[in-house]
Amino acid sequence: MGGGVRYIGVAERRARLGLRHRLAGEARAQGPADVAQSLVALHGSDPATVYLAVGARLTDPAKTVAETERVLYEDRALVRMHGMRHTVFVFPAELTAVVHASTGLTVAARERAALIKHMASAGAPDAAWLAEVEESTLAALARRGQATAAELAEDEPRLREQFVYAAGKSYEGTHSVSTRLLRVLGVEGKVVRGRPLGSWLSTQFRWAVAPEHPELEVAEAQADLLRHWLAACGPATEADLKWWTGWRVTEVRRALTAIGAQAVSLDEGTGYVVDGDVGPVAGPAEPWAALLPGLDPTAMGWQARDWYLAPELRPSLFDRSGNVGPTVWWNGRVVGGWAQRPDGEIVWRFLEDLGGSERREADAAVAVEAERLRRWLGPARVTPRFRTPVERELGS
């Protein structure tokens, strides 16, 4: 591109990633809230990802579990809720209203309409009946503070009722009212995930009434979310932004204009940064390594990933649905995968040929990270929810 538009190359993008995503040694955070604010959102589809993503970025990872549980369930500085692309994330509490207005409202309308349609096609009660159950369920949840679906069904038995979804189709299934209704209430911002039933690795959560937040105008919220994300992840292309947010391209362009985003030149074409972020960024003072979990927000942050992940590595590191597994990072790029064995040992494999002295330096740095991870995990054993070829092989 001409006209004075600055080119930002791969080396500088990797430098930004190492510093802004709290991965370089000098950039590590003091607590989970700092990590979440730096990344905007932590993937929450796999509960372990939240803790592993935090631990990889803390100066003292021994505090990972206790501090993350505190900010999630006591201070409520972080909130687990549905967000972009109907995915569960953990957000800083101050962004919940922004996420709800910018991405949740559209998904919520679609989910409620689908639930009513599916219930009607199955001959289940109508929308008025569902509204009664919803009101009763929210009242019960307010009384209890936090509760599982089964506990709520003790107060509102109609939650136990079931209906057949897609009768006669290959994907026919039976859904309970509680499963579908709580999901809808989640994307509508009326309920959020509470404490898990078991340890921090548990996939079964209680529900809680969502904290009150202001209702924002959609375009304003989209601009705010985009500003936060570009500050953490810029430069990025329109395609990256459309993929990450789940918005239409017209919404992405409107938000870019609203925040005065500045265009830069990337290997993929035109990219964008927040206003004032065009200038050069010095890299980390020292080389760095990181062991990031499956679905880590850095590994999943962009649609176009060639600048940090060689295409030939993807079949080994992703499952068939496009979910990334545990990755080994060296100076801003993915170079391999890792796993935890049943005895707790952290093992890894380089998939990229680093060669010579760089390989020795990287191997030593990864060994340090593996030992840090092994120590704070202690007796916990982590199996990713979405398993990949390298992780399965190494973890056996």
UniProtKB/TrEMBL annotation:
The keyword DNA-binding applies. This is Winged helix DNA-binding domain-containing protein. Keywords: DNA-binding. One of its GO terms (molecular function) is DNA binding. Pfam families: AlkZ-like. PANTHER family: LMO0824 PROTEIN, WINGED HELIX DNA-BINDING DOMAIN-CONTAINING PROTEIN. InterPro entries: AlkZ-like. It comes from the Bacteria.
